[in-house]
């Protein structure tokens, strides 16, 4: 009896696993779910935890062992999507940014979007000029600490907060002045709403950047926003296409294509190259989902999309969910008492350190930067401490950002006139990373840098190690890297994997081609040699082209083949 009970308990444990979801306020939600549970079940648990009804804007993101980010599919089994072993660690994030955050029905939804945009500002994804940066930071300060109080807020109190990857003392003073004089009396709800309305006017609102390279090999960031597709390169926005102009999104291996129709029937094709085929597929799926969400009027209009024109090749994907217009209509029907919101206040936050955190990062880079390892998906992810190099500075051009109603315009062509400056510095959202408490097994790592000079850093929980896998770093007394050495254990060669995929693709194409040829040959024999009296066969036989082909080509070929067979038969008999 006891043995049966123990075996039954073990089987039940094998059918369940733990899952941890990091929320937007950096708290964690842990639950136990069945092995066959789908993504929708976990997402519903999180929404119930937040008492959230306008949930279509949000999604759950995870990172696989190859450091590739993914959105959790709600219609698929969670265990089949995760490439690692449980327990699983994921993050709740805004997947579709609201085109107008002020139009959201409930305050809890606006608060969660506020936390996401505050995170974007801190991680360098939301760029702006100094005047806008000071106003955004002042709104955050007012929402978190309330009205200025000389007894509670000593001189330089704003320097204890870290709103951006890097900022100067002049900007800190400007933030304090706005907080002291212009925002008195605003409640947290009002400050958050004003913050959202201000952020919505910026060009990089809603940008979730995907690093790529153009056809010339220059680095670029591709992103999908509520208003369309945008390309950021250097310190300029080089392309912007409305969703109505984008006609098709395709990818093959690492190559990503965007087809668009601009004014006067001008058709353009933009081509970019992702770091890996998996990153390119993720980029394509994000584009398909964003286009369906923002462009379509009804979810019934959603169609399955193929990444290739050939029916036997490529990936097929279909967005499952409601579109933006349906979400707004459903939100208007919500009638309930507003749920209680538990704001983080002064609780230390990994994404935006509060007043209890360390001193301000000055414009002078630190000589030593510290990285920490924490376990994400069995230790495969690592997070680095701050290593910022992109300041938020004023642009020499008077108005570097378009207001919201100008988001609907399109940058024409590729010339210099179509490029819009968004920052004095190169747009590099990965220049800031998430400070995280040190785990017991934390290590001291140096900041590795890319050949182009950008830090080899990562964003939030979706992170990469400071040094490449398969290498170890030796450090000097000042913490700098002296030498990188190759470890004995290394990952499989990506080139070998790509070669295997290429060989499989060629074999598949060969088999399909042979199948088509066999089908055509069978149809030809049926037309010429059979006596089947079928309507479509009879019509084909009566055409002049078929009769000419039959008497001038097929009959001589048949006599030649028959002669060869008779010769071979006689040759074999004589032997």
Automatic annotation (TrEMBL):
Q: Which GO terms describe its cellular component?
A: adherens junction; cytoskeleton
* Pfam families reported in the protein's UniProt record: FA, FERM_C, FERM_M, FERM_N
Major localisation: other
Question: SMART domains this protein is in?
Answer: B41 (SM00295), FA (SM01195), FERM_C (SM01196)
CDD domains associated with the record: FERM_B-lobe, FERM_F1_FRMD3
- Can you say where in the cell this protein is located? Cell junction, Adherens junction
**What are the entry keywords?**
Cell junction, Membrane, Phosphoprotein, Transmembrane, Transmembrane helix
Q: Where is this region: Disordered?
A: 348-367, 385-418
- Provide the GO biological process annotations: actomyosin structure organization
Tell me where in this chain the FERM domain is found. 17-298
Membrane-spanning intervals of the chain: 502-528
Q: Tell me, in a sentence or two, what this protein's role is.
A: May be involved in regulation of cell migration. May regulate cell-matrix interactions via its interaction with ITGB5 and modifying ITGB5 cytoplasmic tail interactions such as with FERMT2 and TLN1. May regulate ROCK1 kinase activity possibly involved in regulation of actin stress fiber formation.
Q: Which PANTHER family match?
A: 4.1 G PROTEIN (PTHR23280), FERM DOMAIN-CONTAINING PROTEIN 5 (PTHR23280:SF5)
Q: What is this protein called?
A: FERM domain-containing protein 5
């Amino acid at each position: 009896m006891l043995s049966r009970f123990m075996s039954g308990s073990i089987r039940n444990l094998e059918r369940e696993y733990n899952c941890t979801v990091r929320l937007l306020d950096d708290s964690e939600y842990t639950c136990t779910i069945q092995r066959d549970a789908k993504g929708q079940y976990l997402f519903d648990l999180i929404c119930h935890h937040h008492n959230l009804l306008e949930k279509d804007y949000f999604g759950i993101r995870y990172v696989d062992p190859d450091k590739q980010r993914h959105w959790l599919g709600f219609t698929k089994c969670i265990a089949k999507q995760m490439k690692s072993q449980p327990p699983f660690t994921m993050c709740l994030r805004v997947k579709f940014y609201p085109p107008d955050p002020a139009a959201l029905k409930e305050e809890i939804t606006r608060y969660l979007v506020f936390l996401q945009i505050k995170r974007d500002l801190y991680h360098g994804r939301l760029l702006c000029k100094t005047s806008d940066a000071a106003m955004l930071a002042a709104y955050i300060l007012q929402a978190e600490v309330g009205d200025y109080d000389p007894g509670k807020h000593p001189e330089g109190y704003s320097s204890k907060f870290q709103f951006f990857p890097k900022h100067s003392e002049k900007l800190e003073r400007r933030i304090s002045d706005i907080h002291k004089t212009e925002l008195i009396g605003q409640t947290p709800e009002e400050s958050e709403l004003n913050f959202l309305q201000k952020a919505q006017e910026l060009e990089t609102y809603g940008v979730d950047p995907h690093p790529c390279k153009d056809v010339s090999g220059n680095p670029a960031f591709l992103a999908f926003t509520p208003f369309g597709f945008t390309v950021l390169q250097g310190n300029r926005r080089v392309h912007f296409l409305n969703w109505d102009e984008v006609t098709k999104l395709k990818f093959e291996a690492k190559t990503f294509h965007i087809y668009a129709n601009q004014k006067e029937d001008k058709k353009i094709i933009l081509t970019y190259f992702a770091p890996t085929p998996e990153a390119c597929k993720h980029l394509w799926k994000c584009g398909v989902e964003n286009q369906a969400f923002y462009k379509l009027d009804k979810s019934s209009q959603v169609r399955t999309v193929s990444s290739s024109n050939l029916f036997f090749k490529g990936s097929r994907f279909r967005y499952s969910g409601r579109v933006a217009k349906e979400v707004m209509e459903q939100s208007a029907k919500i009638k309930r008492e507003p749920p209680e919101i538990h704001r983080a206040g002064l609780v230390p936050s990994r994404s935006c350190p509060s007043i209890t955190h360390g001193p301000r990062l000055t414009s002078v880079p630190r000589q030593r930067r510290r990285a920490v390892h924490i376990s994400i998906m069995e230790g495969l992810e690592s997070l680095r401490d701050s290593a910022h190099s992109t300041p938020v500075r004023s642009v020499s051009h008077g108005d570097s950002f378009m207001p919201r109603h100008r988001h609907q315009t399109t940058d024409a062509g590729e010339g210099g006139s179509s490029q819009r400056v968004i920052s004095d510095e190169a747009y590099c959202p990965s220049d800031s990373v998430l400070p995280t408490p040190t785990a017991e097994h934390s290590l001291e790592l140096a900041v590795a840098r890319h050949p182009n000079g950008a830090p080899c850093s990562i964003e939030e929980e979706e992170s990469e190690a400071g040094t490449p896998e398969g290498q170890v770093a030796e450090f000097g007394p000042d913490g700098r890297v002296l030498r990188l050495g190759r470890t004995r254990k290394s990952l499989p060669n990506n080139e070998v994997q790509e070669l295997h995929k290429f060989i499989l693709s060629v074999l598949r194409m060969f088999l399909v081609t042979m199948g088509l040829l066999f089908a055509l040959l069978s149809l030809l024999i049926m037309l010429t040699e059979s006596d089947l009296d079928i309507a479509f066969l009879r019509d084909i036989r009566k055409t002049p082209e078929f009769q000419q082909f039959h008497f001038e080509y097929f009959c001589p070929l048949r006599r030649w083949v028959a002669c060869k067979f008779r010769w071979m038969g006689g040759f074999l008999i004589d032997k």
